[in-house]
Design brief:
By secondary structure, the protein is of the alpha/beta class. Helices cover 36% and strands 20% of the residues. Bound molecules: NADPH dihydro-nicotinamide-adenine-dinucleotide phosphate.
Length: 273
């Protein structure tokens, strides 16, 4: 990509960010559309100073990752209503010094699920009560689905369920639940816990669609078991890709080149030569 005096800058702020797949994904998308834009990693410790820096340098857009998704909220000039409900921002849109915060994690999850099944009226068993479960849960409510949360730590799980206005189950009892959709938003199944299932495989027959948001490995044991049970499956790349596509669309106003972005993610994850 040729950088010149008119190149517009974007990036990702977090700590650490060296593992992030977003620079490769977004730069491949900018290049595919011939946009004079570049996307850089920003290792940020002091969020307030970083926000001042973004304004001062005319940075156009920033992805926000761990541990800053909540901390950035106090420095925004405006916020998307769903991001406000979720209580986390993963996207900054900066226009003439004014910073708008959004959350595209839920958009990514909803788009991935909607490719397989209508969300309005669907019943979803959501495993986990961490940051991703929170974004996915609020997103599913936006789409008109009904949710049950199942998770390990009761206080955390019950807290999220109260916010979402939905029932909670201990993770150990999740096998008794039924629904149209099962979403794994725990880190069980992720390397080095890749042998672990978040729910017993016998329970999977109760669901039409199973989405695992873990993407390393891409085909988790849960997804293998779900395929054997006859479920439609969605791997963790879909949410990752579509949250990035939603960021791209917010920043550029252009339709994201999702095939190019998916290829970039696969290459970064080592699935292509
Ligand atoms: P958090 O740390 O916020 O939440 C992790 C959740 O997993 C918690 O609910 C936690 O339980 C549960 N958990 C962890 N270990 C166990 C265990 N041994 N037994 C039972 N439950 C367990 O993480 P995130 O929500 O940010 O991420 C979760 C997963 O999603 C990660 O694997 C991450 O890589 C992946 N991810 C994928 C994305 C995508 O776009 N595809 C985006 C973001 C994350 P408890 O409630 O008890 O703490």
């Amino acid at each position: 990509m040729a950088i010149n005096g008119a190149t517009e800058l974007y990036g990702i702020m977090g700590n650490p960010v060296s593992h992030s797949l977003s620079p490769a994904m977004h730069n491949s998308a900018f290049a595919a559309l011939g946009l004079n834009k570049a996307y850089l990693p920003f290792v940020v410790q002091d969020v307030a100073q970083a926000m001042t820096g973004f304004r001062a340098l005319g940075i156009k857009g920033v992805s926000v990752t761990i541990p800053h998704k909540q901390a950035v909220m106090q420095y925004l000039d405006s916020i998307d209503p769903v991001a406000e409900k979720i209580g986390a921002v993963n996207t900054l849109l900066i226009d003439q010094g004014a910073i708008h915060g959004a959350n595209t994690d839920w958009l990514g999850a909803n788009r991935a699920l909607s490719e397989k099944i209508p969300l309005k009226g669907a019943s979803v068993l959501l495993l986990g009560a961490g940051g991703s479960a929170r974004a996915i849960g609020f997103g599913l409510l936006e789409a008109g689905a009904s949710i049950t949360i199942a998770s390990r730590t009761p206080e955390k799980g019950q807290g999220l369920a109260a916010l979402l206005g939905c029932p909670w189950l201990p993770l150990a009892d999740a096998a008794g639940a039924t629904g149209n959709i099962l979403v794994n938003a725990t880190s069980l199944g992720m390397a080095p816990q890749q042998e672990q299932l978040p729910i017993v495989s016998e329970a999977l027959i109760n669901f039409k669609v199973v989405m695992d948001i873990v993407y390393a490995p891409l085909e988790t044991r849960l997804l293998q078991a779900a395929k054997q049970a006859g479920c439609q499956t969605i791997d963790g790349l879909a949410m990752l890709l579509y949250q990035g596509a939603a960021q791209f669309e917010l920043w550029t106003g252009r339709q994201a080149p999702v095939a190019v972005m998916r290829q970039s993610l696969l290459t970064s994850l080592g699935y292509n030569p």
